[in-house]
Amino acid sequence: MKIRFIINPISGTGKQKGIEKTISKHLDNYDIVYTQKSGDATRLSSEVARNDIDVVVAVGGDGTVNECLIGLVNSNTALGVIPCGSGNGFAYHIGMDRTIEKAIVQLKDAKIETIDSCTANGAPFVNVSGIGFDAHIANLFAGLKERGFINYAKLILKELSYKPQEYTLQYEGLDRKVKAYMISFANASQYGNNFRIAPNAQVNDGLLDFVIVKAFPKWKILFFLLKVARGKTHLSKYVEIIQSKHMKISAKNILLHLDGEPYKAKKPVEIQLLPKSLKILIPNGKK
Q1: Residue 68 in contact with residue 45, Cβ under 8 Å?
Q2: CB atoms within 10 A of CB 51
């Protein structure tokens, strides 16, 4: 099995520095390429079909995973990941170790499975995307010079004055309105760092978990964040989870993120599941 490592040298807090030496210590059939600007990971992953490469491993965060994904949907090349971003939600969901060397060793004893991917207005994503507060935070976080979980958490606390919006949802023949802080589209379970917005979401069940976080008293926000951190989001009375393959969402102001990266979306936003459309490389015993 030949692997192409696509390294984002500026992802996260820089834990990928010197990773080449660790890769050479444990693997032998691979090549390494680097991104220099946005879009490079998509171009580099798209090249694999012409180079007889079995797996593309994204070395970075969920944004790097998302760029690689674009070039691999409905292809014969599998996507793997070494978590080096600020959140690493997809990597942790599929069972990758937080330590770089251990994660590389996991690649030696891994298997290829086919999972679902998704689109929002035609743009692919594989982990967690959404509109509302989480998209607001993603947009602000993208402009920070210093990354990492601590800076992300500080930003959340700073923006707790965010107001809920009115959304119109169309799914499964229904047409309804909700007032919500955010609506997450979860193919996998977490944003990253084990903050699980959709604890029961699975990447191979043929369904998206649409997590609607409804308006609630401001003084309860920190208690809600604690539920997310403990993987108990679904137990909150302010949360509704709808499982569906498709949903159309309309609102006056729509700010969207795809796998944690801000994305300019036209209204309305149409979210679609693509069943069994992506091959991934995961540790044995994990899903």
Answers
A1: yes
A2: 10
* Strand 128-132 relative to strand 174-186, pairing: antiparallel
Q: Using CA atoms, how far apart are residues 287 and 152, in angstroms rounded to an integer? A: 27
Cα(1)–Cα(134) distance, integer angstroms: 38
Residue pair 115/274 in contact (Cβ under 8 Å)? The answer is no
Q: How far apart are CA 137 and CA 237, in angstroms?
A: 23
Per-residue pLDDT band for 264 (boundaries 50, 70, 90) equals confident
> What's the whole-number average pLDDT of the chain?
91
- Please state, in angstroms and rounded to a whole number, the distance separating the CA atoms of residues 258 and 239: 21
Residue range(s) occupied by CATH 2.60.200.40 in the chain: 123-275
pTM over 0.85: yes
Of 29, 90, 1, 11, the C-alpha closest to 282 is: 90
CATH 3.40.50.10330 occupies which residues in the chain? 3-117+278-283
**CATH number, domain 123-275, options 3.40.50.620, 3.30.420.40, 3.40.190.10, 2.60.200.40:** 2.60.200.40
The pLDDT, as a whole number, for residue 286 is: 60
**3 token code pair:** 């692997």
d(CA 113, CA 103): 18
Q: For residue 260, which of 144, 104, 107, 101 has the smallest C-alpha distance? A: 144
DSSP 163: P
3-117+278-283 belongs to CATH 3.40.50.10300: no
CA gap 29, 61 in Å, rounded: 23
